[in-house]
Amino acid sequence: MLKCAVVGATGAVGRQMLADLEVGAATVELQVDLFASPRSQGLKLLFQEKPPVLRVWDEGCLGKYDVVFMSAGSAFSRQWSPAIVQSGAWVIDNSSCWRLDAEVPLVAPEVNGEVLKAYTRPTIIANPNCSTIQMVVALSPLQRSFGLQAVHVSTYQSVSGSGQTGVDALQRELQDLDGTPSSPYPARIAHNLLPAIGAYEPGGACEEEAKMIAETRKILALPELDVLASVVRVPVPHCHGETLWVRLAEPASYTEVTAALAQGEGLQLYLGNQLDQEPLPLEWAGQPHVG
Questions:
Q1: Could you tell me the pTM of the whole model?
Q2: 2 burial type by CB count under 10 A (0-12 exposed, 13-18 middle, 19+ buried)
Q3: Do 119 and 105 form a contact (C-beta atoms < 8 A)?
Q4: Are strands 148-157 and 226-233 parallel, antiparallel or unpaired?
Q5: Residues near 169 by Cβ (< 8 Å), separated by ≥ 6?
């Protein structure tokens, strides 16, 4: 039996982790314990048709798990993840805390999962930013077949990227056009577009753009790759969209490019030229593939 903990289980990502573990439990015997902040006590979640008890993580939890799925934010992960690893558990961390740490693997399994073969003992495994993940899944088959010289990306990111507070803010604003308390956004999101995600950095890029650039280079092991990112938050509950412009290192025809993409792991290729044949957020949210 694999003993797992989900820390931050009541957040949007934590709930999705739990749903994915539910699927995994069909093939692997799992014990799953859930942890959240004290303010979440009393919330009801289900796993395998049973309501696990929500607990607060403390030192007494160390040494009890094989894998800890961490979705409680950077500060919490920085405080606890090294100790969890020292106690003998793997940590899969969803925060931005460890992504660019040279000692921590940054992994999109469909793209560079093989890097984990080098780790024979528990360690922290960082997962990329949500917008970076789907982009590298699409880039990976092109990199393998033709090489990459440059990538320009524009994103159209749903409010779920801000967690449950983003989803709640959009829902409240759609019902009350006079304003929304406790929104994670600097301006109204309903009926609007926000042309930056995170604070602006000295070079002029916003935080999300800088993440996409640095993380893409690390995952693809292309530290000099020319990456230009432009990000926009859109009033859509779930499912990010992106457009990519790519310069390949080798010449390739349309047929060769689409054939390479068709073989991409985690990628579902659509070649239709009509809207009813395109992957759209309303239908695509929750799907396990990039479309």
A1: 0.91
A2: middle
A3: yes
A4: parallel
A5: 159, 162, 180, 182, 183, 184, 185, 189
Instruction: Say if residue 102's pLDDT is above 90.
Output: yes
- pLDDT (tens digit per residue) in 174-212: 987 655 667 899 999 999 999 999 999 998 899 999 999
Q: What is the pLDDT of residues 212-246, one digit of tens each?
A: 999 999 999 999 999 999 999 999 999 999 999 99
- The DSSP 8-state label assigned to residue 153 in this structure reads E
Residue 6 near residue 35 (C-beta atoms within 8 A): yes
Quick one: three-class SS letters along 189-243?
A: CCCCCECCCCCECCCCCEHHHHHHHHHHHHHCCCCCCEEEEEEEECCCCCCCEEE
3-state class of 111 per DSSP? helix
Q: Return d(Cα 124, Cα 78) in angstroms, integer.
A: 11
Other residues' Cβ atoms within 10 Å of the Cβ of residue 250: 10
Q: Token pair of 263, please?
A: 């073989």
Q: CA 173, 71, 32 angle in degrees (round to 5)? A: 120
Q: Which of 178, 177, 160 is nearest to 168 (CA)?
A: 160
Of the candidate ranges 102-116, 154-168, 263-277, the one whose mean pLDDT is the lowest: 263-277
- Cα angle vertex 156, ends 161, 127, to 5°? 40
* pLDDT above 90 as % of the chain: 69
Residues annotated as part of the active site = 130, 240
Q: Report d(CA 4, CA 265) in Å as an integer.
A: 26
